[in-house]
Structure formats: structure tokens, C-alpha cells
Design brief:
Among the domains are: 35 residues; 80 residues, no CATH class. The protein is 59% helix and 6% strand.
């Protein structure tokens, strides 16, 4: 944040300024140019007396409706006079010309001057900083909300993905080709070799390939019958972070490709919830 004196802020027409020094209560925050008062001190004082301020304001408005009405009319008249006498602001000019963004004449309270959206005139740099700070402080809350939304809107999200893939086949193909040409083939080959080794290590020596044929045959038949791609998934992942499952018929289940993609390397308790068990047809 740019350090600026109160005198310089007045000359530039700023509503706030930042000295980099603590106030008498130890807050290193923005200060009001008009009063020199610390913004954090104001917020604390407001929070401490919030109910009192709101109740007093509400009571005064109820007791003085004529004064409130007169004040509103005066303010409206004043705004009309000011608006008529002043040239159009950059935002008003952008709205008139049909543009989506504009560059404000003055910086925001923190000194940023960047393009802003007409329908959302807040400073984009300040908004990004607030968003970043909130995400850092509420990671668990955000993750829980995202998981809850995915659980409630599985069909909606699946349809949206399917519609996107149908509408952007060429773009997806181009991106995949670009990824493969930029070292993707080597990464894919290495990943496949590592997976093959993991499957080999996780397969009991008493099992043969014939023990898996029936399950994969059933998977193909379900895919053909429903028209939806199904895959054979390890109920407990063979490369889990805490527990590694076996590559055995009793640890395999048939699920849709979309569900398999979402499950990834997660444990069943994490993905399905505590107490979930695989279908008995696959477990036996």
C-alpha cells in the first residue's frame, strides 16, 4: 500500500490515506482524510455500539417522518443540480457508449487505478485481494460448501459437462493435441507404467487374469445396454494416501466413467460417506 501524508491526500482529493504508522490504539490501517481518524478504530467503535446506533436512527426516523421526507427531497434536488452541472463521469460515459469497462478518474481508497466493470464498479484489485484473503482464512468452509453443492447437483453438473464437451469437441481435441506435443505423451507413458507396476504389486499371487474376465465382461454389457460408459473401479484405491487396496474381484466395482473420474484416488469414506459398502454383486 502506498504511503502518503494527509496533506498530500487532500491535494489529490483522496478520501483516505495511509501513513504506515500505528494509531494510538496500535492499528496500522487507512485513515480518513477529513478527520485523520483510523478506519479500524471506527469499525470497532461501530461494532461495539451497533445496536444502539441502529435503534436511535430508527426511532428518530419514526418520530420525524416529515423531516426525513424533506431531507430526502432536498438531497434528490441537490443531486439533480450537481448531476446537471457536472460533465458525465467515466462510468456514465461508458454506459452511454455501451462499453463494459471504464477507467476511473481517481484511484480507490488504497491507491489502485485500474479498469472497472460498468455493472460492478468496485476496484478489481481490492476485490481480488479480499477474495484471496477470504479463501486463505476459510479453506475448510469453502471446501465443505463445494462438496455439498456437488452432492446436491450431480445430475446438473454431469449434464453441463456433457453439453460443454458436445459444444467444444474441436477445442478439446486441439488442447489435448497441444498437451501431447508438449511432453504429454512422455508423462502419460510414465503414469501408465507406474500404474501397471502398482496393479502388479497389488494383485495377489493366487489370482490369474481369468478371475477378472467375468467382471469386465459385465462392465462392457452394462455400457452397451445403457449407452453410458461404465468402468471397473477399485473400491479402495491401489495407491491410496493412507490405505492401499488390492487388485482383486472383491475390491472392484462397476461405476460410470463420470463417477470414476470424480472419485479419483479418494477413499470410499471420503467420497461416498461413512458406512457405505460396495454392491454385493461386486463384493462377492
Amino acid at each position: 500500500m502506498e504511503i502518503i501524508t494527509r496533506k498530500e491526500a487532500k491535494e489529490k482529493g483522496l478520501t483516505h490515506y495511509f501513513t504506515g504508522k500505528p494509531c494510538k490504539h496500535g492499528h496500522i490501517e487507512l485513515r480518513y482524510t477529513a478527520t485523520g481518524y483510523c478506519d479500524e478504530c471506527r469499525k470497532i467503535k461501530w461494532r461495539q455500539n451497533k445496536d444502539k446506533h441502529l435503534s436511535n436512527s430508527k426511532r428518530w426516523k419514526q418520530q420525524n417522518p416529515d423531516k426525513v421526507k424533506k431531507h430526502c427531497q432536498t438531497q434528490q434536488k441537490r443531486r439533480r443540480i450537481i448531476t446537471a452541472s457536472k460533465p458525465l463521469s467515466p462510468r456514465q460515459q461508458a454506459i452511454k457508449e455501451g462499453r463494459e469497462t471504464y477507467l476511473p478518474e481517481k484511484p480507490c481508497v488504497k491507491g489502485h487505478r485500474a479498469l472497472r466493470k460498468v455493472n460492478h464498479p468496485a476496484c478489481p484489485i481490492c476485490s481480488a485481494e479480499r477474495c484471496k484473503k477470504y479463501k486463505a482464512q476459510n479453506q475448510e468452509k469453502i471446501k465443505a460448501c463445494e462438496n455439498e453443492y456437488r452432492q446436491k447437483n450431480k445430475d446438473k453438473l454431469a449434464k453441463a459437462r456433457q453439453a460443454y464437451h458436445q459444444a467444444n469437441k474441436e477445442r478439446i481435441r486441439e488442447k489435448r493435441t497441444e498437451w501431447l506435443n508438449n511432453g504429454g505423451r512422455a508423462k502419460k507413458c510414465i503414469a501408465q507404467k507406474m500404474r501397471d507396476k502398482a496393479i502388479k504389486r497389488a494383485t495377489p499371487s493366487t489370482l490369474a487374469n481369468q478371475d477378472f474376465y467375468e467382471l469386465y465382461q459385465a462392465c462392457n454389457e452394462i455400457s452397451k445396454a445403457t449407452g453410458i460408459e461404465h468402468q471397473v473401479d477399485h473400491y479402495y484405491p491401489i495407491r491410496g494416501e493412507t490405505v492401499c487396496g488390492l487388485n482383486a474381484p472383491w475390491n472392484l466395482q462397476i461405476i460410470t466413467a463420470e463417477e470414476n473420474w470424480r472419485k479419483g484416488n479418494k477413499m470410499p469414506e471420503e467420497f461416498y460417506g461413512v458406512g457405505h459398502t460396495p454392491p454385493m454383486d461386486y463384493a462377492n
